[in-house]
From TrEMBL:
GO terms for cellular component: protein-DNA complex. The lineage of its organism: Bacteria, Pseudomonadati, Bacteroidota, Flavobacteriia, Flavobacteriales. Belongs to the LysR transcriptional regulatory family. It holds the Pfam family LysR_substrate. Gene3D superfamilies: Periplasmic binding protein-like II, Winged helix-like DNA-binding domain superfamily/Winged helix DNA-binding domain. This is LysR family transcriptional regulator. GO terms for molecular function: DNA binding; DNA-binding transcription factor activity. Keywords: DNA-binding, Transcription, Transcription regulation. InterPro entries: LysR_HTH_N, LysR_subst-bd, WH-like_DNA-bd_sf, WH_DNA-bd_sf. It comes from the Bacteria.
Length: 293
């Protein structure tokens, strides 16, 4: 199937007359009829009902017309955007990231890209891992920063860094000296990520607690790492967060203890569409990859 088959089909579908369609396409009628016949044969579906008086679309033809029109609209949109980005005239580049990634890194990335591509509009979205994968597959974002494994034939993944875990607590309400004292916290209130929002991460936290010999009493849940840390600071519980957060949180009221005994890590990865070879994407990935946390 070639684009010309689709163009010829749309012309006939619009005119519902082979003579008028052939005039519109500047070809004679026999080749047009032949092209439509080839298309029907390839699809193994009759697209038109033809008799001496009129031409009508079949139900299959009506469906094919709708989808083909959408296809051409998407092709036009893609062509226009590709041309604009290539010319560095305008365009939009959408980056999604998880809340547990330190914001200064994202800010540095945008500054780097803006210096290279001053006319491109960069947009940032804080989005969960599962929603990022879905958005990238549907073309709603150009790049994502996620945590946990990914299984998608449409996505290319670049490992950025492996992140460990740390216990986070309020120093004024919790007395703990080292990782060896964690079991003493088994009756404390825990603040976790919502399991529907980040199912893999939620399971890892449960696995961590099991390693230390207890099941956490989860009272509060949140969908944002900063909200979790704030709840801990307010004395509403303790939590386990990525060690990357501990390294970048200077708050004197909050304590962190890295969990070194358990051999559990999460992969923080940069994801892009498998077929995306744009200069902006390449520049973004190359900027981040050397900055292994």
């Amino acid at each position: 199937m070639e684009l010309r088959h689709l163009k010829y089909f749309l012309a006939v579908a619009e005119e519902l007359n082979f003579t008028k369609a052939s005039e519109k396409l500047f070809i004679s009628q026999p080749p047009l009829s032949r092209q439509i016949a080839e298309l029907e044969e390839e699809l193994q579906a009759k697209l038109f009902i033809r008799n001496n008086k009129k031409v009508e679309l079949t139900e299959a033809g009506k469906y094919f017309e709708k989808e083909t029109k959408e296809l051409f609209q998407n092709l036009e949109r893609i062509s226009t955007k590709t041309k604009k980005i290539a010319e560095n005239v305008s365009g939009e580049f959408r980056i999604a990231y998880i809340s547990s990634i330190y914001s200064s890194v994202i800010s540095d990335l945008i500054q780097h890209l803006k210096a290279q591509f001053p006319y491109v509009n960069f947009k940032l979205f804080e989005v969960s891992t599962t929603k990022q994968i879905d958005a990238l597959e549907k073309g709603k974002i150009e790049m994502g920063i996620i945590r946990s494994p990914i299984h998608s034939p449409k996505i290319k993944s670049h490992l950025w860094f492996k992140d460990g875990f740390s216990l986070v607590y309020n120093k004024n309400t919790i007395q703990i000296k080292s990782e060896n004292d964690i079991l003493k916290l088994k009756d404390e209130t825990f603040v976790f990520f919502n399991k529907d929002y980040a199912p893999h991460y939620h399971e890892v936290l449960l696995e961590l607690c099991a390693f230390y010999g207890f099941s956490p009493k989860i009272i509060h849940e949140a969908n944002n790492i900063n909200s979790i840390v704030q709840l801990v600071k307010n004395g509403l519980g303790i939590s386990i967060v990525p060690s990357n957060i501990a390294k970048n949180n200077p708050d004197s009221e909050i304590g962190f203890i890295e969990l070194k005994k358990v051999n559990l890590f999460t992969n923080v990865s940069i994801i892009t569409a498998k077929e995306d070879e744009s200069e902006i994407t390449r520049s973004a990935v190359e900027f981040l990859l050397p900055q292994r946390r």
